[in-house]
Specification:
321 residues; mainly alpha; two-stranded antiparallel sheet; globular; S-acyltransferase; transferase; acyltransferase
Length: 321
């Protein structure tokens, strides 16, 4: 499958007008949610930035819920990848037009490079192939199964389909399937897992850098006494995008630590947890099940047959077979 095949496949089912309306809905949702968060420093000017953080989180969540209800009412579906894209562009735009003049040249080069790399990485992961495995009739004959889904679950039936899982969201069969990423609108599998980790790390670094730059801008405005002369809309947008970046970094760090843990022990998210409800999922796959007495009904215990030790696991992630 070519690099653009996955992206083209998703676009074929939509007309140009549907794509345009989806883009406008995503852009509107970004502006609405950011303007809602921008009201927090305006309504609570006496609070510290740390105290504003939980309020901003609640306001942002409420704005997203209201935005989704409005989209259902008008019948236009927004796109999560476009929502991510417009948030990057908004953050970058606020930096360039407001914060940049208070930033050193080195830091300016750094944050511009980070934002550009985020856009490039987002394009790559949207247009790339996660490792989709086509349904070949020869696989079914070799495994003695009626359908492809039945063939991919018991890996011992057909070693060539080892760790090929079916995504519940897009129904694709993906080699090395980890999870379906709603933010990027694509599966994360063997071919794009490293790019996903690089992109996730890039978001943490870029948003942390932006938070540092915006904090310096606000501090300098306060210390120089020019905060009252600043455009209140621009200042509130700086604070709102900074609060949004902090909220993003908080959950992204936890998510990044989880994926690093999975890489170190060579286990996929789908093999450990089930979807959005976080139920134990390893009992679904026979290779992770072990009984103390194979011929009895003794309790099934978890065993990871893919764990080859820390260094080997990291090497296999970096250079998959």
């Amino acid at each position: 499958m070519s690099r653009l095949a996955t992206g083209l496949h998703r676009l074929r089912s939509r007309s140009p007008w549907e794509v345009l309306w989806s883009a406008l809905a995503s852009c509107g949702l970004v502006l609405f949610s950011q303007l809602a968060v921008a009201m927090v420093p305006r309504l609570f000017p006496s609070l510290s930035l740390i105290a504003m953080l939980p309020i901003a989180g609640l306001v942002f969540f409420a704005a997203i819920v209201l935005g989704r209800l409005w989209r259902r009412f008008i019948g236009v579906a927004a796109s999560a990848p476009l929502f991510v894209l417009f948030n990057i562009l908004l953050m970058w735009g606020v930096y360039v037009f407001v914060i940049r003049r208070e930033t050193s040249s080195l830091l300016d080069m750094l944050i511009n490079a980070e934002c550009a790399l985020l856009l490039w990485g987002l394009y790559r992961i949207l247009s790339g192939d996660p490792g989709i495995v086509a349904c070949d009739p020869s696989y079914l004959e070799e495994a003695g199964c009626k359908d492809f889904v039945e063939a991919i679950y018991p890996s011992e039936k057909l070693p060539t389909l080892s760790r090929v899982r079916q995504c519940n969201c897009c129904k694709a069969n993906v080699r090395g399937y980890d999870h379906h990423c709603p933010a990027f609108g694509t599966c994360i599998g063997q071919k794009n897992h490293r790019l996903f980790m690089a992109l996730l790390t890039g978001f943490v670094v870029a948003e942390s850098t932006y938070t540092m730059c915006s904090t310096k801008y606000i501090t300098r405005c306060i210390n120089s006494g020019t905060i009252r002369s600043e455009n209140p809309v621009s200042l509130n947008m700086v604070i709102s995008t900074m609060l949004f970046s902090i909220l993003q970094v908080l959950w992204q760090i936890v998510f990044l630590m989880w994926h690093i843990y999975c890489i170190c022990f060579n286990i996929k998210t789908d093999e450990w947890l089930k979807g959005e409800i976080f139920q134990i999922n390893w009992k679904r796959y026979p290779e992770f099940q072990m009984r103390e007495q194979p011929q009895s009904d003794s309790e099934v215990k978890f065993v990871n047959p893919y764990d080859k030790g820390l260094l080997c696991n990291i090497r296999e992630f970096l250079k998959p077979k």
